[in-house]
Fold each of these.
Amino acid sequence: MAQARERRSGAAELEKSLHEDLSNPARLLLVDFRDRPYVPVALRYEELRISVRLGRACTTELIQQELVWEVEVHTCRPGRPEKFYELTPKGTDLVGSQKLGPGKGGLAHRHYQRRNCDRHVGLGYLSKVEAILDGKIG
């Protein structure tokens, strides 16, 4: 809950630098996309305490303003792929770079890297994303 307040205050600080025609919930969502890129959409809306309807409207607003791109990540589970949102260059100019963590490539590729690393660690293996092996990043 304290984290949600911090994200809201972060969005308030950026209010002056963002487009004036961008709604407050959309600003909050944009900052959250930057800070927590790997959180699934439904969980994100719940944690930010915004309804699914408002969340979808804000996400659509961000896409129309060309601040984010929708990235679908296919999982091994049946059903729809998970949706994540990557900042566009325009979105990055407004709020800064996304915190994607170690690895190479875009949001979807790094998500797969993280997921595979976590699975291997869960099985008891020593696993790192983009570790240095024999003097080379591998």
Amino acid sequence: MTESSPDGPPPTFPAQGNDREADDPAIDALAFDNPSGLTELVSDPASAFPPEGIDIPAADFGTRVVKIGFDIGTAAEVGAWIVVPTAWTFDPSTTQFADGNGQHIEFFTSCGGECRPRAWSTVVGLDGGPLDQQLDRYGATASGVGVGTAGNGGHVSSSATFDDRTLLATMMWNNDAPLFVGCNVIVAQANADDGYDQLCRSAVIDWDTVIANAPEREPLQIITTPEVAALIDAVADGSVASPGEPQLVEIDDDGEHVVSIWLPDGTETRTGGFATEVTLEQAESLFTDITFSSSCNGTCEPKDWATDLNGFSDPIGARRAGIDLDNDAPIGSRGWILTGPALGGSDYEIVIMLWDDGAGRYFECHAGLDDADRELASTVISMCLSAEPQWFG
């Protein structure tokens, strides 16, 4: 393969770390390991996708725009437009653009596990997740991480060093897409500040085509344990199953938002800003965190909360992406519950959101239980489900 002509054999655009289940047809249909590769070179940035062109980083070295294509397992080829140094050529043996002296840039796609749309900002930054995997791949030590978002997409970047080199790693995503795009730049440490960090972030991916040609989303799977299912059934019709006498708790400094809720004996609360910290007398670990809060997820107005909060990058969707779920279910028409071990961490997560479509804010009870306090999960869930936000109709 060469990269000298748009008409020549294309280099490949590799996939890494898909971790796909071979017997899952919905996932296996995404044949990211069969990319179509480079399709053409674009000499005029104004003619590249999108119509307004592509941002060229200010750098001391010359650059050119390269169009690459990759296959998402359908008839559609997806385009991406990237910026590479003019003097770097494609090496078919490594699928990298390189200068021949150890400096190179590479792009890849990955699902980071299951190939489905999700809150990628949560997934790629997990401890042991895709970004950490790239650092481990090179044995590099991170010196800084940055996150940028725009609309429904974004990127996370990390600068890391190993030997006499600098790794500039970037993951780019759209939350409605079933994959993210990764980019690594390896340069000599002496060159790290010369503009190379902007190469990856200059890439433009045709996410609309990725999303339009991805398999249809599977319906959300409702998951409940028998114990939690029983607790949900007791309150799903709007009833409040309180294990004891409820108390009024302010969850903001001005006392505008108050919740009536049962608190186990000895529980202490402390309100600050827009949340209330809760300390259970039974908790053994200082690392167990419980909070009550309220929010709007945008404009503070009545809305269809079940739909508004359940998008991939919305509060329920974002929480869901970071939990190995053993409960993921609606609480009738009045809320939602998520529970399970935190991905990339040791806490047991409990998230309960309650709402009223006629109210302008929802209520959230969130707990991160340290290992020593995991047996308190049932108590915390019962406490959260007993809540009656006083600003509901």
Amino acid sequence: MRRILPLFCLAMLSAALLAGCAAGQKYPTDNAYHPETDAQYTWYAKGERRMFAEAENGYYVLLHLNQLFYMDAAAMEPIPVCSKPNCDHTDKSCDSFFRGSVCSVFYNNGKLYVLENTPTSLDRFALEEVAADGSTRRTLFEFSMPVDYQKALVHRGKFYVASTQMDEKMNARTGIWQFDLARPSSAPKLLCEMEPSYEHLSQLAAEYITARGHYLYITAPCQAARLDLNAPKKGLEMLFVQEDRPEDPADPYYRREGQLLFPCFPGDRIAYASAGVRTIDGTDYWFNLLKLWDAEPLREAASLSEKLAVGAMAADDKYIYRLDQGSPAPPDTDDPYFGNALKIYDAEGNLLENIPLTDVGKIMRMLFVSPGEHVFFGDAQEGLWYICKSEIGSGNVQVHRLTDFGYLE
């Protein structure tokens, strides 16, 4: 049953937002993670829209593509973010709904933001600052061109997006744009221009961005780079270019690496999941291989087992998570939970937990790791579940149902 967020809680949340950053606030410039001011990068290690954000005492989550809910971390019950006492929360008159057909949510330095994307004849691409109770909204930026949810984030007082936008002279320019949240009327800065070519990182090729410390990480097909936000004029630093391995007829486990996936940051390392195909007896099996780099100085450190199956992968500063998607098991796999499990590794790739999900969802494609206590996963139509990180290592990790409706319904 849907409920109204208690007015007292809304008032407390609104007060917290009003206590947010001032225009003259100084932000960190080091390469550490600061929870109050930095992008919540653990959510972004999977190529989904950014539908979760963690606040001081709970979470904001966008369900049904564009309806905003709040969950207290103790109760873990999604409640529409609406200040209207008699609202049934079922149509666009409710405070919890946004105009965008596909939206993303960010919580940064005590403030709540929603990115609205409306790819229709009534195009609207805007970043809204939202009151904690949903009662008021302020448009900070309206963008001249579409903004992809995988290429946008809030970090250390700025909104970053990899896209094509109009500059002050109304010229379309492609690259990494920076918008100042404290001065929304000021012109955005083009930090790094990109050529629209697959031979270089570009608006066409740049598929994903995330941030950790003073670096912005950019992923493109088969290549990855980072941009030093303290010295953006230095341009992109290429991390690596991934190429298919030449076919070896003598190798029955010939591996073709293809799409490069998304970065995450276990411990002090950088990890990239790489999607590929392994051919066994003429049958193709998709898989993921997680490659690890030491960040400072940048050097390749290790790769996890090539027998990692295809699945959503993410990490926080302590653990690596893999959610099998129900894909067929290769004949050399003797894992009884293959395709029906959440697997948790330490930062070195050692398996800590193998949590069966036999009775949970049909195809578990969605994985969202909070910076704090919870890991969420789900099926787009059947709903969401979660576990508590404090139970990892106990051998008795409990799986809890979060919603009884799919978040795309």
Amino acid sequence: MQWQRLSLLIAGMLFTNGCLGTLVEDRSADLIAGAAQSVLDMPIRASRPYWLLRQQPNWISTQQIDFGGAALDRGRTSVYVVRFRTTPAAVAAFQRLTPDYFYRLWAERMREAPRPMTDPPLPPVEQALSLEYRPPLPRNESDTADDAVAQLIALRSGAIVLVIDSIGVDRQHLASAATELIKAARGQQRTGR
């Protein structure tokens, strides 16, 4: 009887792994995201694999890198580096990144679906999307008490999609961080790391 339970457990694990696969650390993505650290001037608090756009064809990996977020930091910024095998795959995946998609993905972070923002000017890239949203209020505050706005920037350069989710960092610093991320993504693609 025990071997039957063990067999079922192993079969279940194999099925789950076959359906979901495994998320692996992506050192190349870490290097790309690290390029924003000097501009953001916040420590890296965490780096981990993530599943953003994983269902898209030719997805290689997504790495989430969190900057700041501690009490003494001026804000919090999460950078998601999504790598694809081909540029056409990244183009198709980028088209999924709409305000509704982000709201369905991260509804707990937002009071409502993000809306377009016009500034800051973003670096020249093949595709870009700039959004803003209001984070949820603490339970003891009224809607008029909080004017915090978070920025959500998505960029594509070649076969790499970058998503920057930030609160507490001014827009000019985010634009500069986006420029550094794009430079690093282009460099990584040239060297093929």
